[in-house]
Amino acid sequence: MEVIGIILSLFLLMFFAYRGFSVILFAPVFALLAATMSGLPLMPAYTELFMGKAVTYIKSFFPVFMLGAVFGKVMEDTGLAKSVAHAIIKGLGKERAILAVVLSGAVLTYGGVSLFVVVFAVYPFAAALFREADIPKRLIPGSIALGAFTFTMDSFPGTPQIQNIIPTNFFGTNIYAAPISGLLGGTAIFILGMMWLERRRKAAQAAGEGYGNHTVNEPEQRDDMNLPAWYVAVLPLLTVLVVNFIMTRVFTWDPSLLAPFQAMKLPLVAPAVKNVISIWSLIIALVCGILLAIVLGVNRLPQGGLAKALNAGAIGSLLAIMNTASEVGYGNVIASLPGFKSISSALMSIKIGGSPLVSEAVTVNVLAGITGSASGGMSIALDLMAKDWLAWANSIGMSPEILHRVASMASGGMDTLPHNGAVITLLAVCGLTHKDSYGDIFAMTVIKTSMVFLVILFHTLTGIL
After folding, report:
1. What parts of the sequence cross the membrane (predicted)?
2. How far apart are the first and last CA of the chain?
């Protein structure tokens, strides 16, 4: 009955999320359903278990969500993000339309712009370019997904996306962990994804299919003359990357910085400075990026000005952080149930190659798929089992860096199932349906999920990070 309760709650959470119900509301509902079926008292399970872990997650990662959303909104409203996308797309031309869309999404994502903002920034140019090249519009979502949701989100070392930040808090690593493995996996995803999309384009061309007659959310004619120069627009992105690198790899943090706060016996203080260096570095980098973007683009802000852009970014971050925190709280309740012990034992028993990597990849992938969230699924998995995986790795002399990279890449695997919020947003922005375009997004999902195991095989055979 205890295991059935867990499985039932997971199924209901996934079903309701797919149907569009908020996980902020229903994650605690189904967590408490599982808790009740396991005999735990209802109210303590909510206030102590669920809320305890949700608040811990917010404490750790809210600054990254908030500043990332503000940075993305300022880049969007000032036209800087659109300028970068337009420059790449115009530079490559209609002959390489798919590549242009993929690269524009990749540059923006790797520069620290939220993938949701990337969708809005890239779509108008992608639609115009695909129409000019007479490529089916239904291929746009797959192209944007490949550029924004895959290799620059969680594979390439140094990416400032949250999926690459979360593991640092559990493994004491930094965002440049396992660089060779990350570059190998990310490059493979890019190549295979491009091969798939080009194959689909050629098949459509052979069948005589063009852009198609579309009326839903077709972009209006834009005035490219009002966009800032691309070499100016890219400066805030470079600033985030450079400052982040300096603060992570060059600057020497005082290991005693946390000592006064630990002496105060404050709740939720990190155990060591190394556990929060990546978060502190990204906070500083994003603040620098925001300030530079404001200086460069304040005169181009629409009605409402700077206050509107900053407020919209800050308020928009609340939904993202609360969604993820609710999923993490849900995982904490499930992890406390007796029935989960048998589930976790089964996952930990996956010992292919004698290392924890396959166990980690499968667990993170499954939970990311169930929750429909890369950051949420990974946070649940690491919160439940990171200590066991780390102890396992230490017992065989394995670097925590590869644990970081595998967890990050696995989170971006099965997360893009149909109920994923980014997928739903992407299709809505493009004016298309799951029936029209989800097949290509699912192909990207299969590719990026498979590449996690390629990275595991590479590391197992070579030992290279």
Report:
1. 7-34, 54-76, 97-123, 175-197, 229-251, 277-298, 441-461
2. 43
Q: Say how far apart CA 369 and CA 133 lie, in whole Å.
A: 35
Specify the long-range contacts of residues 100-103, CB closer than 8 Å, at least 24 apart: 100/129, 101/125, 101/126, 101/129, 101/130, 101/140, 101/143, 101/144, 101/147, 102/143, 102/144, 102/146, 102/147, 102/190, 102/193, 102/194, 102/197, 103/147
Please give the structure tokens belonging to residue 136. 């089916």
Q: Which amino acid appears at position 186 of this protein?
A: G
Per-residue pLDDT band for 221 (boundaries 50, 70, 90) equals low
Q: DSSP for 415-455, please give it.
A: GGSTT-HHHHHHHHHHT--HHHHHHHHHHHHHHHHHHHHHH
pLDDT for 220 equals 60
Mean pLDDT in residue range 148-164: 90
Question: Per mean pLDDT, which range of 65-74, 92-101, 151-160, 368-377 is the poorest?
Answer: 368-377
Residue 418 to residue 427: CA distance in whole angstroms: 10
Q: What is the three-class DSSP state of 241? A: helix
**Cα 398 from Cα 166, distance rounded (Å):** 20
Q: Is 328 helix (H, G, I), strand (E, B) or coil?
A: helix
Q: How is the chain split into domains, by residue range?
A: 1-211+225-462
Window from 16-25, 73-82, 125-134 with minimum mean pLDDT = 16-25
Dist. CA 358–CA 452, nearest whole Å: 9
Please enumerate in sequence order all residues whose Cβ is within 8 A of that of 31, keeping only pairs 6 or more positions apart, or say none: 9, 45, 46, 49, 50, 329, 330, 333, 334
The radius of gyration of the chain from alpha carbons, rounded to an integer in Å, stands at 22
> Predicted confidence band at 75 (pLDDT cuts at 50, 70, 90)?
confident
Give the separation between CA 435 and CA 420, rounded to whole angstroms: 15
* Runs of H (alpha helix) within 93-178: 97-110, 115-133, 140-148, 162-171
List the structure tokens of 373: 């969230």
Q: What is the pLDDT of residue 385?
A: 85
Q: Which of 390, 340, 459 is nearest to 168 (CA)?
A: 390
- Which of 77-81, 394-398, 402-406 is least confident? 77-81
Assess contact for 160 and 112: CB atoms under 8 A. Answer: yes
User: How far from the centroid of its chain's Cα atoms is residue 270's Cα?
Assistant: 23
Q: Shortest CA distance to 155 belongs to which of 111, 204, 114, 189? A: 189
Packing angle of the helix pair 305-336, 338-348 (nearest 10 deg): 100
